[in-house]
Design brief:
This protein is an all-alpha fold. It has eight helices and no strands.
């Protein structure tokens, strides 16, 4: 349900003596949504202003970070020392570890692995 439709649908219930929890249970909507609409309704009770949700605009920062220079720098850092930890790469590149993991997997097509220590079998051990 869109926020505008939700506000129009909830507006008859908001001025009543019902709690937001009761309204949310009755309408089968999230409590946080009902609380936000109730708060906005109470703040703008006397005005005829259309209530609308304040939404965060997507800034496309991830697509800006995945530019060619960024990918080349990350690729050269991985090629220089493949054993470098993802956390170290993220700190060096000043991005999140999640972003580094996505770029390594999706753009560079590398797969991370855990170096496992194996038992070394010597000739004397084979003889036994």
């Amino acid at each position: 349900m869109s926020t505008t439709k939700g506000r129009q649908f909830l507006s008859p219930y908001v001025p009543t003596a019902c709690s937001p929890k009761e309204i949310a249970d009755f309408l089968k909507n999230s409590l946080r949504t009902v609380q936000g609409i109730t708060k906005a309704f109470n703040e703008n009770k006397n005005s005829e202003v259309e209530l609308s949700a304040a939404r965060r605009v997507h800034d496309h920062s991830e697509s800006q970070l995945r530019s060619e220079p960024f990918l080349e720098e990350l690729h050269s850092a991985v090629q220089d020392d493949p054993s470098t930890a993802i956390q170290s790469l993220a700190a060096h590149m000043k991005v999140s570890t999640c972003m580094i993991e996505k770029v390594i997997h999706e753009n560079l097509w590398y797969k991370s692995y855990v170096l496992k220590m194996r038992q070394h079998l010597t000739d004397s051990m084979r003889a036994k």
